[in-house]
Amino acid sequence: MGEPSREEYKIQSFDAETQQLLKTALKDPGAVDLEKVANVIVDHSLQDCVFSKEAGRMCYAIIQAESKQAGQSVFRRGLLNRLQQEYQAREQLRARSLQGWVCYVTFICNIFDYLRVNNMPMMALVNPVYDCLFRLAQPDSLSKEEEVDCLVLQLHRVGEQLEKMNGQRMDELFVLIRDGFLLPTGLSSLAQLLLLEIIEFRAA
């Protein structure tokens, strides 16, 4: 049978009907409701942190397929609208489910990493991504290892791109991170280690 493609492997975590919907979206996007597809991917990303790390690849593939087939961007519009809705309700999401919040930040950073306009990251996502990372650098977030881990992972993944888009905000973010590292806010030893590592990584 050969190795399944990475997209097909990711689809296995869905029920059979949704798997069929996503496979069709990847091969023949005009045959399905692409707004529904966008909602399905976002919903699953908020529940499944493994999927949220790789969903950007699938979204990029659907956007490319739709653009090639119809020259349209229904899926991208639906995806960005839904990301914006979740972004506006991010504090409620964090209060309701820390895992859901971490998944959301992972997902929006993944989308930022993959989606390009004229070979450049999407400007519309720069400030929302920064805002999420700033939230992860607040003292109450730094006391939670899941959020520190997410912050450091995303900075490794998209920090360089973000800095090119807005260097001043990255400087401000690292002031927050350094302050958080130095203040006795009850950081765990793992959190301290992760923060020190990303501070040294940027300094180098």
UniProtKB/TrEMBL annotation:
Keyword Membrane: no
Domain MIF4G: 7-203
Superkingdom: Eukaryota
Principal location listed in the UniProt entry: cytoplasm
GO cellular component terms listed in the entry, alphabetical order: cytosol; Golgi apparatus; histone mRNA stem-loop binding complex; nucleolus
Pfam families: MIF4G
Subcellular location: Cytoplasm; Nucleus
Protein's UniProt keywords contain Nucleus: yes
Keywords: Cytoplasm, Nucleus, Translation regulation
Example of a GO MF term: identical protein binding
BP GO terms, sorted: regulation of translation
Stated family: Belongs to the MIF4GD family.
Function: Functions in replication-dependent translation of histone mRNAs which differ from other eukaryotic mRNAs in that they do not end with a poly-A tail but a stem-loop. May participate in circularizing those mRNAs specifically enhancing their translation.
Subunit architecture: Interacts with EIF4G1, EIF4G2 and SLBP; probably tethered by SLBP to the 3'-end of mRNAs ending with the histone stem-loop, it also interacts with EIF4G1 which is bound to their 5'-end.
UniProt-recorded name of the protein: MIF4G domain-containing protein
Organism: Homo sapiens
